[in-house]
Amino acid sequence: MSQTFIQQRTERTEWFLRDRFGMFIHWGLYAIPARGEWVRSVERISSEDYRQYFDEFNPERYDPKAWARTAKEAGMKYAVLTAKHHDGFCLFDSKLTDYKSTRTACGRDLVREFLDAFRAEGLKVGLYYSLLDWHHPDYPAYGDRIHPMRDNEAYKRDPERFGVYLDYMHGQVRELLTEYGKLDIMWFDFSYDGMKGEKWRATELMEMIRAQQPHLIVDNRLEASGEEGGSIYTEQPSLYSGDFASPEQIIPPRGVTDDQGNSIPWEACITLNNNWGYGANDLTYKSAKTVIRKLVECVSKNGNLLLNVGPDAAGEIPQRSLTVLAEVGEWLRRNGDSIYGCGEADLPKPDWGRYTRKGNKLYAHVLEESVGPVNLAGLGDRVQRARLLADGSELFVTRPWNAKLYPDDAFFNFAQPEHFTYPLPDER
Ligand code: FHN
Fold this sequence. Notes:
Elements: H1 3-12, H2 14-19, E1 21-25, H3 39-42, H4 47-56, H5 64-73, E2 78-84, H6 110-120, E3 124-130, H7 153-157, H8 159-179, E4 185-189, H9 202-212, E5 217-218, E6 267-271, H10 288-300, E7 304-309, H11 319-335, E8 353-358, E9 361-366, E10 374-375, E11 386-387, E12 394-395, E13 397-398, E14 411-412
Parallel strand pairs: 1-2, 1-7, 2-3, 3-4, 4-5, 6-7
Antiparallel strand pairs: 8-9, 10-14, 11-12, 13-14
């Protein structure tokens, strides 16, 4: 693929790499059983039995404006909502199916309300769209097969039949791109086994996407999954390799680079508890401290964090999620300069934490309790001054007591000057 392709990808993702922190929202019929979004497959729920959730779905407390305020106050700059997950239920008013929110008791176009509310709060907006579809009669999963995505008999047996599904899938993506205003992200999910790339007619799909919304950024899962990355990691990315890699429930040890070592846009998608969809009994929520540390780690490696919430069947984000997000937002209100617009610092990771960098500003995230001054090893005289970002207070930068031994070291200390054991600048 040409440098122009890479250059266009760089231009498209400029806002994405600046914003760094987004909200992932997995919501749909599976919020009623409240055992995660794979419940139909894992528990082998038949189409008939799963239909009960369609018949009763009526999220009366769905207030996307409240969701948008929550995301904004948490310091999130963009949000991605499931427009359709693997169960095939559409949260938007698709003309290609009746298996949609506007045909349930709520009668609402949940996607349109989400987009309007989050745009009104100034957030960028994205839609997740499942390539798999356990409901559509022409998708291999038709019928009640456990882990249907792994069982592709229908495709092998009758590609024509699967082609009918692909026309449906492409048609719905076109609906989302042409009837819901300017979108910022399309988050496809996911390729697997032999189902990747042209098996989805991905070139045709990407050409349509680029024609309809050329600025839109797309993830890499038209040819990849959460575990594998696809050609975006290579020097020859395909047309449908996507604009960013999407490691899932992990933060890559050294960030994400192509096979030439060039950093490429990436976003770690991570759940707040252990479920993407609402899990009523899943109380394994990460603390705000953990979320902040993971956000710092992503940015220190040139990546984004897409943090997931799973609203309940009433349409509300769980209180435990709200509590964590509020605390993260408080930290970002005071320390967001060290996250937004920042990236890796091209310095060895210090023992005490991580660096992020923006231009000539270096942010030292001291994550380990330090005994005495914090060593900015290797930075020596390059550090002109230090300030505590949260309140702007001065931190004295000192040189080691035997500078000859540590010529490239500099230290700063959170303690007040009288606690210093080193000569203060004016005493040198
Ligand atoms: O199977 C899905 C899963 O339900 C969830 O949507 C995640 C989010 O990235 N993607 C797939 C698993 O990789």
